[in-house]
Amino acid sequence: MRLVKPYASRRRAWALAVAATLALIGWGATPAAAYVPPVDDLWARLVAGAPLLKSAIVDTETVVFDPAQPGPAGSAQGAPAPKPLAGRDFRQRIYWQRGALLAVETLSGDGTPLHLMLRDGYRTYEKALSTARTFAPADLHPVLYPFLEASAAAWRDELVFWGIQPLAVALELYGSATAYVLGEGAGQALWIDRNEDRPVRLEVRAAGPAPLQLAVQFSEYMPVAAKNQDAANPRLPKVMTYEIGGRLFRRTTITDVQADAPVRSFPLVRWRQELGLSAAAAAYAFTRTEGGKP
To answer: What is the pTM of this model?
Structure first.
């Protein structure tokens, strides 16, 4: 038989209670708030916050910087911001209809058409419209699409595009708060604000002879639904900042959103002409009714 000293036991229990309390204070969370959801539950939380839209036309402007210059992300406080690279800026107009159509027109700063991508149902077409500029797939990738579509499939495809396998969820410190980390851990994951269920950062390791760390920061969330239906629930990031190795590389800003844009605003005939497709073929998106059937 083992004798237990009552006073020592009480002191130990008190010490454990204090340690547990300090741990919770340090994390800024209660036991319930520290719950880490499984992957499917986190998909559902992202989907639940979708903007109240059926379609939209979103205009963006992108400014490109030289990451070799000192930038806000990697320089001392008060250092000058890097200057944009001349002739590298571009604009995009994103046409989107939920579950059906996505088109991205890329134009130079002066409005010259440079590239067109059309995803009509399960078919995707792309064409360079100018030889003056060349783009990598990641340059033209519409990172706003999963925010608009807000389906588990859209978010899963987005992470796979960036080479991230969304296999697990962890809880990590993010600044002075905590965030869910969906993916393969810090450095190769999507960071999600656990209070607002909004993505705040995408981190990718680009493979190659000299591996690079790419990070996309999502900020200044804005409401986009028509008639301010989601004024208290901003779900679309207005600013997307790209960093390479901690240095500013690109900044994309939303300049205009046409919520629930009418069908006549989608220039499908012109797109088909530019892509060399038959104008007689019916568009998948515009042959569907609310129920999803012709």
So the answer is: 0.80
Classify residue 121: in a domain, yes or no: yes
Sign of CA dihedral 112, 250, 204, 199: negative
**194's tokens:** 């656990």
Residues 13 and 46 in one domain: no
Dump the DSSP string for 126-155: EEE--SS----HHHH--TTHHHHH--HHHH
Q: Is 124 helix (H, G, I), strand (E, B) or coil?
A: strand
Same domain for 147 and 121: yes
Instruction: Look up the domain containing 94 and give its range.
Output: 39-287
102-136 residues labelled b (16+ CB within 10 A) or e (exposed): bbbbbbbeeeeebbbbbbbeeeebeeebeeebeee
* 21 and 121 share one domain: no
**Which structure tokens are listed for 143?**
């990172």
For the chain, the domain total comes to 2
Contact indicator for 38, 187 with CB cutoff of 8 Å: no
Give residue 87's pLDDT: 86
Task: Give 176-204 pLDDT, tens digit per residue.
Answer: 888 999 998 768 899 999 888 899 999 99
